[in-house]
Amino acid sequence: MKRLVVFGTQWGDEGKGKITDFLAQRSDVVVRYQGGNNAGHTIVLDGVKFALHTIPSGILSPHIHNVLANGMVINPKGLLEEMKKLEGREYHMHISDRAHVILPYHLLLDGARENKLKQKIGTTKKGIGPAYTDKAERSGIRMCEFINPELFLKRLEEVIPYKNEQLKNFGLEPLSVQDVYFEYKAYAEALKPYVCNTSLLLNNYVKEGKKLLFEGAQGSLLCLDHGTYPFVTSSSPTAASVPINTGLAPWLIEGAVGVTKAYTTRVGEGPLPTELFDEIGERIVERGHEYGTTTGRRRRVGWLDLMIIKHAALSSGLSSIALTLLDVLSGFDELKVCVSYRLEGKELKDIPTDINDLKRVEPIYQTLPGWQEEITHVTSFDELPKNAQDYLLFIEEQVGVPVDIFSVGPDRKQTIFRKNIF
């Protein structure tokens, strides 16, 4: 395969950055296709940790071209802060001239709306939702306008009075057009050299025979259309969204790797059918360091839920599974895996669409024997304890998709291919 998508099959935080970084060593181009700096990817290279929020995960490899595609919403200030951490490193980066820009009023409105809601969504308050709202109602400011000083000022003069009315309704102080303009004009000047028509760029890469890796943010259960609505993000992280979010034809995408934790986690509000509230849950939190890269919030944890993995396979399409954090499960006598749900006495074939039904489902578990051995040193499937091997094979059998990659630790070297897929 020369064009492969990497996306999360759960509620985000599955280890997509690590798997993308691993696969990126075999690619020429890495593309972020949606979301913004509400994402958090942690990559460990030679013991050094890098936390990325906006920049694609291929940025640590000097030969890779990293693309922020048109489906993203980009906070210029946040992006430049992230770029500053890369000073002294060689990298190649391209930003779509069609990507929308996150501005101060998006941040203010995001926080204000969340604070007013009786039923909290659990937003990161990074301005993502309001920026996508502006995109949908055709009032957003795109990169092509942002890097043009005269046009940027004109657009701010059109938009900010309207946004100030919204801010006033929340009891917030109005923004000054001039203050926003002069602060963000400097950011625009710094980013201008990176801005281009990335659809044209990507199509040229395809013609040149380059290998492209597409990196999603969040997880498929946070998809605006196929996720646990309304506890979702404001875009679609699924592999199915890649063509519209990058400007490539659908038939050019050749496969999709679903990154899946060996257990289940979630940050923020919304149902988590297999959630653990006991000592086992706390043990997984501490062993897996389950605290958000972007927010620092403690993640909720539960047993592996194969119903949501099968839903991701249906709604997005999976050619492979990459199973992460398998090492966290070492030391348990037994492991439970959710294979189905029961609701009002009936066994379900897919996750309920209605969030109220999903809150009421009863997980149906199958119990598998655990393993006591530490596995962080293994370098092949055959070196895993038999019960760990059986855990992977059980997932394959239930989902109907091969586990072609698994990881046993945070470092790039602790990621193992069972089959060469890229």
TrEMBL record:
<feature type="binding site" description="in other chain">
    <location>
        <position position="124"/>
    </location>
    <ligand>
        <name>IMP</name>
    </ligand>
</feature>
<feature type="binding site">
    <location>
        <position position="299"/>
    </location>
    <ligand>
        <name>GTP</name>
    </ligand>
</feature>
<keyword id="KW-0963">Cytoplasm</keyword>
<comment type="similarity">
    <text>Belongs to the adenylosuccinate synthetase family.</text>
</comment>
<dbReference type="GO" id="GO:0005525">
    <property type="term" value="F:GTP binding"/>
</dbReference>
<feature type="binding site">
    <location>
        <position position="138"/>
    </location>
    <ligand>
        <name>IMP</name>
    </ligand>
</feature>
<dbReference type="GO" id="GO:0000287">
    <property type="term" value="F:magnesium ion binding"/>
</dbReference>
<feature type="binding site">
    <location>
        <begin position="40"/>
        <end position="42"/>
    </location>
    <ligand>
        <name>GTP</name>
    </ligand>
</feature>
<comment type="function">
    <text>Plays an important role in the de novo pathway of purine nucleotide biosynthesis. Catalyzes the first committed step in the biosynthesis of AMP from IMP.</text>
</comment>
<feature type="active site">
    <location>
        <position position="135"/>
    </location>
</feature>
<keyword id="KW-0342">GTP-binding</keyword>
<keyword id="KW-0460">Magnesium</keyword>
<feature type="binding site">
    <location>
        <begin position="325"/>
        <end position="327"/>
    </location>
    <ligand>
        <name>GTP</name>
    </ligand>
</feature>
<feature type="binding site">
    <location>
        <begin position="407"/>
        <end position="409"/>
    </location>
    <ligand>
        <name>GTP</name>
    </ligand>
</feature>
<dbReference type="GO" id="GO:0005737">
    <property type="term" value="C:cytoplasm"/>
</dbReference>
<feature type="binding site">
    <location>
        <position position="13"/>
    </location>
    <ligand>
        <name>Mg(2+)</name>
    </ligand>
</feature>
<feature type="binding site" description="in other chain">
    <location>
        <position position="218"/>
    </location>
    <ligand>
        <name>IMP</name>
    </ligand>
</feature>
<keyword id="KW-0547">Nucleotide-binding</keyword>
<dbReference type="InterPro" id="IPR001114">
    <property type="entry name" value="Adenylosuccinate_synthetase"/>
</dbReference>
<feature type="binding site" description="in other chain">
    <location>
        <position position="233"/>
    </location>
    <ligand>
        <name>IMP</name>
    </ligand>
</feature>
<dbReference type="Pfam" id="PF00709">
    <property type="entry name" value="Adenylsucc_synt"/>
</dbReference>
<keyword id="KW-0436">Ligase</keyword>
<feature type="active site" description="Proton donor">
    <location>
        <position position="41"/>
    </location>
</feature>
<dbReference type="InterPro" id="IPR018220">
    <property type="entry name" value="Adenylosuccin_syn_GTP-bd"/>
</dbReference>
<dbReference type="InterPro" id="IPR042109">
    <property type="entry name" value="Adenylosuccinate_synth_dom1"/>
</dbReference>
<keyword id="KW-0658">Purine biosynthesis</keyword>
<comment type="pathway">
    <text>Purine metabolism; AMP biosynthesis via de novo pathway; AMP from IMP: step 1/2.</text>
</comment>
<protein>
    <recommendedName>
        <fullName>Adenylosuccinate synthetase</fullName>
        <ecNumber>6.3.4.4</ecNumber>
    </recommendedName>
</protein>
<feature type="binding site">
    <location>
        <position position="40"/>
    </location>
    <ligand>
        <name>Mg(2+)</name>
    </ligand>
</feature>
<feature type="binding site" description="in other chain">
    <location>
        <position position="297"/>
    </location>
    <ligand>
        <name>IMP</name>
    </ligand>
</feature>
<dbReference type="GO" id="GO:0004019">
    <property type="term" value="F:adenylosuccinate synthase activity"/>
</dbReference>
<feature type="binding site" description="in other chain">
    <location>
        <begin position="38"/>
        <end position="41"/>
    </location>
    <ligand>
        <name>IMP</name>
    </ligand>
</feature>
<keyword id="KW-0479">Metal-binding</keyword>
<dbReference type="InterPro" id="IPR042111">
    <property type="entry name" value="Adenylosuccinate_synth_dom3"/>
</dbReference>
<feature type="active site" description="Proton acceptor">
    <location>
        <position position="13"/>
    </location>
</feature>
<comment type="subunit">
    <text>Homodimer.</text>
</comment>
<dbReference type="GO" id="GO:0044208">
    <property type="term" value="P:'de novo' AMP biosynthetic process"/>
</dbReference>
<dbReference type="InterPro" id="IPR042110">
    <property type="entry name" value="Adenylosuccinate_synth_dom2"/>
</dbReference>
<feature type="binding site" description="in other chain">
    <location>
        <begin position="13"/>
        <end position="16"/>
    </location>
    <ligand>
        <name>IMP</name>
    </ligand>
</feature>
<dbReference type="InterPro" id="IPR027417">
    <property type="entry name" value="P-loop_NTPase"/>
</dbReference>
<dbReference type="GO" id="GO:0046040">
    <property type="term" value="P:IMP metabolic process"/>
</dbReference>
<feature type="binding site">
    <location>
        <begin position="12"/>
        <end position="18"/>
    </location>
    <ligand>
        <name>GTP</name>
    </ligand>
</feature>
